[in-house]
TrEMBL record:
Domain Alpha/beta hydrolase fold-3 intervals: 87-317
Protein name, entry field: Putative carboxylesterase 17
Organism: Morella rubra (Chinese bayberry)
InterPro entries in alphabetical order: AB_hydrolase_3 (IPR013094), AB_hydrolase_fold (IPR029058), Carboxylest/Gibb_receptor (IPR050466)
GO molecular function terms listed in the Swiss-Prot or TrEMBL record: hydrolase activity
Pfam families: Abhydrolase_3
Protein family per UniProt: Belongs to the 'GDXG' lipolytic enzyme family.
């Protein structure tokens, strides 16, 4: 797996005062927001077609889900016999950057489809700040309803991937902000106003949260004090910008979309959630927050499996920025396969 150099990202937070009324928010190399509303996202990660760099035996195509909101997805199908689990995946990027067509996700997910023997729908949801939360959650739900509709209609256009799917064995998954999206889509499906018939014939069996991007007004120890390498994918300052650009205007970081524990464990008890696996990275600033989240799920009676990957940081599985990244990524894929196959 090729490494993506974070030296090119140069993840510094800054402001500037020149064209378009000056820069009001910036993560250098990733996103720049101007006072007049203009948004720039430098092409720091290559955008690749669905046919490029696929794992052997995996086919992929892009599909339009909603042309009015420009919602689309990239679907990966491995050459495996029988009906396969369906994994609906949401990419990371602080809700503000990222794409299902980024080369790192194309590589990771085609590999995962092959190793875990599952069909993967990689969702290209709308980004903030143009589309603040809950836009990404709505896109996630709309994707599930679209899959449901294709299945009920017996769509010939989408038979190439539908015929391989065991729709009753569906999992939601994502990394970083994408894990936050997966969790919040799952909670909406598990709210008191929803029922299993909402997405039938789809059957939500589990959620796989890889380094879920949560936050809170009170910082954890790892957010305050953990030593990060100079080119970390996520720093406290970078997280500040992402939350500032993605949460509803006026919301603080104890908003439940940012901090699922802000209203206490009692709210978690009321949710009907599927089995959850949380993948935590030892060197991630989110480590303590992720572990607290797992502990709260356990306390509320939910079934949660916690896996800690030692010696690696945030998004190691797509950045390959450590000598341990490749073996840890293989471990993660094995854990995901085992979780899906339970």
């Amino acid at each position: 797996m090729a490494a993506i150099s974070l030296e090119r990202f140069n993840l510094r937070v800054g402001t500037n005062l020149h064209q378009h009324g000056g820069v009001v928010d910036e993560i250098e190399g990733l996103i720049r927001v101007y006072k007049d509303g203009r948004i720039e996202r430098p092409p720091i990660v290559p955008i690749v077609p669905c046919s490029m760099g696929l794992e052997r035996g995996v086919t992929a195509n892009d599909v339009v889900i909603d042309k009015f909101s420009s919602l689309w997805a990239r679907i990966y199908v491995p050459s495996c016999p029988g009906k396969l689990p369906l994994l609906v995946y949401f990419h990371g990027g602080g809700f503000c950057v990222g794409s299902a067509a980024w080369s790192c996700y194309n590589e990771f997910l085609s590999h995962l489809a092959s190793k875990a023997n599952c069909v993967i729908i990689s969702v290209n949801y709308r980004l903030a700040p143009e589309n603040r939360l809950p836009a990404a959650y709505e896109d996630g739900l709309n994707t599930l309803m679209w899959v449901k509709q294709q299945a009920l209609n017996g769509s010939n256009e989408h038979r190439w991937w539908l015929k391989h799917c065991n729709l009753s064995n569906m999992h939601l998954a994502g990394d970083s902000a994408g894990a936050n999206v997966a969790y919040n889509v799952a909670t909406r499906l598990g709210s008191s106003g929803a029922s299993e018939s909402t997405i039938r014939p789809l059957g939500l069996r589990g959620a796989i949260l890889i380094q879920p991007f949560f936050g809170g007004e009170a910082l954890t120890w790892s957010e305050r004090y953990s030593n990060q390498p100079p080119n970390s994918a996520l720093t406290p300052a970078v997280a500040d910008v992402y939350w500032r650009l993605s949460l509803p205007l006026g919301a603080n970081r104890d908003h439940p979309w940012c901090n699922p524990l802000a209203t206490g464990v009692a709210r978690l008890r009321d949710l009907r959630l599927p089995n959850i696996m949380v993948c935590v990275s030892e060197m991630d600033i989110l480590k303590d927050r992720n572990l607290e989240f797992c502990s709260a799920l356990n306390s509320s009676g939910k079934r949660v499996e916690t896996v800690l990957y030692k010696g690696v940081g945030h998004s190691f599985q797509i950045l390959h920025n450590s000598q341990l990244s490749q073996p840890r990524t293989h471990e993660m894929m094995s854990h995901i396969k085992a979780f899906i196959d339970e």
